[in-house]
Specification:
This protein has helices at about 20, 35-45, 80-85, 125-135, 160, 170-180, and strands at about 55, 75-80, 90-95, 110-115, 135-145, 185-190, 200-205. It has about 210 residues and is of the alpha/beta class. The longest helix has 14 residues, at about 35-45. The protein is globular.
């Protein structure tokens, strides 16, 4: 499977120090406003089947999943243990730095859906991570990547710092295409009036063939 990497200068950050230092302290805050959180929860309500196995990638203390829906498993992968321990929706979690090690600590075809809520801008090896997401998804499983306009500017990659917010979903679509493991992505614009913008880029894992580890 051919994976087209991104040019290194597009993935550069102002702060290239160890991410573990930046995320050492818990941040029990939200990064989009309440109306936008509600819009994202509605997307999950529409797209995720009850009883699905779900991976919340780059997770924190809240997963934005609808409270009334039961899933067979909600796993979280993030950088701060205290944040993950505070997340009531997680059945299990792993503290894991995807920029240091883009491989995911899960067996092949473990999940029906993988979520990433307003954190994709911090990935420095995104194509490798997206290929790994495909590996842990079951054939026909979906990766949903939510994008808004706020970033930690020193840790966001150059592409996300320099592009206008409404062009950033196109970067995510490029990650899907370059990974070589997904059907053509689709874009949902669920931006609430007068609130933070919300774009969700979704793509389904191709079925039938082997998805090799990045």
């Amino acid at each position: 499977m051919s994976r087209d990497p991104m040019p290194p200068h597009q993935l550069a950050r102002e702060d290239e120090s160890d991410d573990a230092l930046f995320y050492a302290g818990p941040r029990l805050v939200t990064h989009i406003d309440d109306a936008t959180i509600a819009a994202l929860t509605q997307v999950y309500r529409e797209r995720l089947r009850p009883s699905s196995a779900v991976l919340d990638l780059m997770s924190s203390w809240i997963s934005h999943l609808p409270e009334a829906v039961t899933y067979s498993r909600v796993a979280g992968l993030g950088m701060n243990r205290a944040e993950l321990e505070a997340n009531p929706r997680l059945d299990d979690f792993a503290v894991h730095d995807l920029n240091a090690t883009p491989s995911l600590p899960y067996p092949d075809e473990s999940f029906d859906a993988v979520l990433n809520a307003v954190s994709v801008q911090y990935l420095t090896r995104p194509v490798e991570v997206f290929a790994e997401v495909a590996r842990v998804l079951r054939p026909g499983g979906e990766h949903l990547v939510a994008v808004s306009h706020r970033v930690f500017p020193t840790k966001a990659i150059a592409l996300f710092r320099t592009l206008p917010p409404d062009e950033r979903p196109g970067v995510v679509a490029a990650y899907f295409r370059r990974s070589g493991a997904f059907e053509e992505p689709t874009l949902l614009d669920r931006s609430p009036p007068g609130a933070d913008p919300l774009w969700v880029v979704c793509a389904v894992r191709r079925g039938g063939g082997e998805v090799r580890r990045a």
